[in-house]
Structure to design on (899 residues):
């Protein structure tokens, strides 16, 4: 079967604006994918190759329909192919049986009636079976239902499996369908008095002789209620974090690596021509030897030249467009079953290069919005003698190929490699060489210019390896974890916290507003009057809750502790009208889901709680803030490392402390990715499939929704849950601390605040004395000073400012009501199909002078932006565009990592 039916149209020297309009209209209803392959030419000036793949009709229309409005396309002409690729996959309609019908905090009450039976949620099918047969088949059923493959809906009981179930267990169960009054399966050896019936995807029982009465009785008595802290099921759903903290791997199984690429002339795809690799154990021993031979050598002194040359020779180098394969062949001779290869920007670049150059994928890569965090691969070049050796070892199970995992250090240390080398106090000649122009190396000249880029490539790998060694040593000492078993710094910090300090241990009793998740219960409507009264009198503490509330800010308020979230209509990036939620600092009526700490802060600042609609109330708090001991340990260690002059240790402690919060608020993932061949994709192409990309001739990476199972085999002693409610309260308490500063300077009612973030406040120096008197010493983050020469100079570190994006003069232009435009490199395009594509042209971004008018009123004559007083008050219309405002603060990850 062919994946695509192709419909190809050739276009020659057509006006590009006409092409856009014609294609947009034609493809509005087209189902499938679109490929554009050709070039656009500006008359007498510029020629630009264009290759776009993977658009469906709707996306194509959204992107190109507004192009003619935003740019002058009348001088551009297009020549090339427009290819319509129609999917041959037919969507399979699946039964929704086994998907539960309940959410996290709800359960189904059991009901026993005269003509029906409703089991509780969870394992509903086997509960019905056990009731009819009067015996427990749960364990045997669990083995049966989990015997199916993951691709074939492992763990899900469906109507189609009923016949097979009857044969397996020698039973005669049937499912009744009231729409056609049929039973499935139709033929059974013995008709039972009870038959199965599906109500809201939940298995129930009805009497065969009273089917209509049984169905009516189910509809009358089927009830979903809130779980309480007394429900065992509820406790497991919102239980505290339970982790298997695995031991970290030794340095001899860890490698630092990097690859160099050039861009193909036509496609602009990144093609590797060199890989460099070094083993961390080998590098560590050589660095220790140098330190022993030269005990007086300062950490930042250059390594003696003879040893530096030896270090450069230790770096393995592989050349040619097959360098990835060469590296895998080299590693296949290495006597370790599991290896980890770490590159500094693996998630954004190197891992994509490996993925596109691997002959065949054996595991699905872990891709998130950050990129490919992990790319596991079974090494096809594993030495045969090593395979035989590992086969004889009983502790090694599964296949006997070497397992390599490509990961990314940028997810731990997000500074550029040069900055990481400097902050790690590396010897001067181990730090990253000043950037070379990698764009100058092409398919035609990379070999003859090897003398230029080879030292650069090797030194990059040495720098990364030395940074990894120092990072892993410090984190291993402190939290018994390192980069080998943690893909990100937040993950490492959370496991470190769990290792050092488990929050169920006994502690000194004190006041604390951090709730235990397992003590949660639903908010009761009869509690509303009492809770509103307690909040408005600021007497709800020390109770804790997360509630949906209506509240109101007074009209004279200048700064609101919690911004409003209003639904407004605006023009999106594709030039279409869109209605969505935008954050606005305004007064009047608001509503939101907030923690009890936030609600109390609203009242303390002068707001008023109007109503409480629903939410969760916690019956029990922790005896002390659960993260406090861990953070105090990190703080003390950071100070100790500072005193000792250990910059790496100090930076790592700061990183661990800052990362813990991020892991506490991560969202649950409701999709999963599979590595399927075409036949498997065709057999499982149902409504659960969200996206799929073809990565080679035989394989697809398919993203599907995670399906709830009838029976699961997860060990309740270990869960992947993170204490997200704690993250919410950590954020609330951090805002509460910052509010103390605002209260002292009366910032909620006077225009004293220029800019604020979660942990920072930008104010005039005239307020410093007030803060000092209150014991709240300010820290200078941005300052404009007048030098003795009468020159104004600026010092800045605040978010939102970036010299390569926008200058101070541009800010002045914006404040004066003028738009500012800047040219930037186009972002790199990454996909499983094409790998990394590096555009060779620029894009123009426009910063609107009115970009903040959605949040506050335009500046008055004194430059003050006062808040709106009502959700319906605006100073912009539906043509307001938000497309470029994010470029004020966002950095391009790809280029920054290579600086």
């Amino acid at each position: 079967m062919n994946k695509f039916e192709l419909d190809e149209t050739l276009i020659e020297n057509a006006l590009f604006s006409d092409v856009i309009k014609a294609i947009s209209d034609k493809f509005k209803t087209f189902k499938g994918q679109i490929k554009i392959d050709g070039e656009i030419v500006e008359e007498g000036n510029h020629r630009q190759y264009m290759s776009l793949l993977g658009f469906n009709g709707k996306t194509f229309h959204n992107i190109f329909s507004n192009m003619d409005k935003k740019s002058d396309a009348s001088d551009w002409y297009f020549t090339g192919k427009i290819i319509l690729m129609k999917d041959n996959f037919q969507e399979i309609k699946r039964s929704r049986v086994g998907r539960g019908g309940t959410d996290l905090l709800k359960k189904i009450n059991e009901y026993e009636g005269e003509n029906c039976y409703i089991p509780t949620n969870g394992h509903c099918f086997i509960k019905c079976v056990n009731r009819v047969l009067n015996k427990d088949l749960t364990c045997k059923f669990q083995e049966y239902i989990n015997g199916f493959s993951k691709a074939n809906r492992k763990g899900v009981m469906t109507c189609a499996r009923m016949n097979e179930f009857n044969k397996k267990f020698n039973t005669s169960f049937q499912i009744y369908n009231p729409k056609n009054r049929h039973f499935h399966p139709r033929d059974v050896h013995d008709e039972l008095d009870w038959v199965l019936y599906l109500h809201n995807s939940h298995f129930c029982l009805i009497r065969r002789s009273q089917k209509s009465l049984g169905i009516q009785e189910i509809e009358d008595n089927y009830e979903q209620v809130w779980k309480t802290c007394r429900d065992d099921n509820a406790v497991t759903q919102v239980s505290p974090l339970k982790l298997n903290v695995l031991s970290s791997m030794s340095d001899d199984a860890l490698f630092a690596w990097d690859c160099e690429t050039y861009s193909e002339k036509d496609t602009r795809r990144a093609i590797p021509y060199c890989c460099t690799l070094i083993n961390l154990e080998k590098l560590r021993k050589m660095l220790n030897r140098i330190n022993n031979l030269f005990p007086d050598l300062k950490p930042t002194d250059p390594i003696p030249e003879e040893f530096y040359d030896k270090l450069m020779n230790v770096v393995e180098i592989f050349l040619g467009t097959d360098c990835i394969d060469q590296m895998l062949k080299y590693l296949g001779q290495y006597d370790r079953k599991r290896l980890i290869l770490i590159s500094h920007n693996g998630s954004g670049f190197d891992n994509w290069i490996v993925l596109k150059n691997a002959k065949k994928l054996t595991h699905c890569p872990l891709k998130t919005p950050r990129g490919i965090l992990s790319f596991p691969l079974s090494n096809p070049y594993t030495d045969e003698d090593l395979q035989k050796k590992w086969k004889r070892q009983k502790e090694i199970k599964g296949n006997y190929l070497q397992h390599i995992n490509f990961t990314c250090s940028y997810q731990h240390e997000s500074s550029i490699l040069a900055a990481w080398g400097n902050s790690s106090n590396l010897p001067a000649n181990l730090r990253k060489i000043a950037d070379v122009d990698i764009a100058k190396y092409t398919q035609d000249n990379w070999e003859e210019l090897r003398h230029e880029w080879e030292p650069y490539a090797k030194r990059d790998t040495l720098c990364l390896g030395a940074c990894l060694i120092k990072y892993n040593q410090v984190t291993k000492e402190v939290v018994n974890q390192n980069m080998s078993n943690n893909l990100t710094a937040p993950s490492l910090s959370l496991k470190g916290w769990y290792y050092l300090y488990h929050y169920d241990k006994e502690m000194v009793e004190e006041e604390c507003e951090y709730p235990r998740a397992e003590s949660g219960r639903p908010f009761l409507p009869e509690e509303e009057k009492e809770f509103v009264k307690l909040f408005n009198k600021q007497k709800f503490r020390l109770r804790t809750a997360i509630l949906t509330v209506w509240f109101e800010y007074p009209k004279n308020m200048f700064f609101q502790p919690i911004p409003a979230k209003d639904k407004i209509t605006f023009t999106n990036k594709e030039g279409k009208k869109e209605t969505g939620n935008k954050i606005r600092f305004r007064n009047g009526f608001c509503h939101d889901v907030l923690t009890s700490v936030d609600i109390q802060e609203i009242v303390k600042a002068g707001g008023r709680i109007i109503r409480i609609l629903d939410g969760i109330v916690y019956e029990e708090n922790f005896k002390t803030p659960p993260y406090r001991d861990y953070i105090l340990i990190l703080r003390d260690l950071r100070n100790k490392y500072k005193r000792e002059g250990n910059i790496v240790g100090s930076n790592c402690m700061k990183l661990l402390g800052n990362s813990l919060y991020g892991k506490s608020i991560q969202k649950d993932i409701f999709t999963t990715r599979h590595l399927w061949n075409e036949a498997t994709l065709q057999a499982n192409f149902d409504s659960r499939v969200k996206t799929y990309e073809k990565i080679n001739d035989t394989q697809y990476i398919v993203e599907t929704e995670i399906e709830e199972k009838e029976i699961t085999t997860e060990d309740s002693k270990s869960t992947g849950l993170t204490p997200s409610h704690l993250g919410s309260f950590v954020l609330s308490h951090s805002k509460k601390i910052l509010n103390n500063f605002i209260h002292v300077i009366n910032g909620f009612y006077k225009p004293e605040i220029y800019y604020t973030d979660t942990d920072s406040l930008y104010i005039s120096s005239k307020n410093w004395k007030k803060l000092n008197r209150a014991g709240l010493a300010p820290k200078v983050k941005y300052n404009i000073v007048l030098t003795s020469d009468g020159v104004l100079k600026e010092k800045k570190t605040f978010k939102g400012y970036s010299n390569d994006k926008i200058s101070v003069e541009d800010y002045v232009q914006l404040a004066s009501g003028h738009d500012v435009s800047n040219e930037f490199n186009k972002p790199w395009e990454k996909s499983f199909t094409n790998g990394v594509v590096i555009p060779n042209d620029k894009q123009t971004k426009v910063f609107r002078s009115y970009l903040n008018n959605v949040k506050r009123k335009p500046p008055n004559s004194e430059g003050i932006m006062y808040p709106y007083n009502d959700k319906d008050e605006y100073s912009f219309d539906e043509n307001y565009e938000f497309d470029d405002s994010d470029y004020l603060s966002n950095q391009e990850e790809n280029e920054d990592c290579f600086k």
Q: What stands out?
A: The first strand starts at residue 4 and ends at 15. The two ends are 47 Å apart (CA to CA). The chain has a mean pLDDT of 79. The CA atoms of residues 850 and 867 lie 15 Å apart.
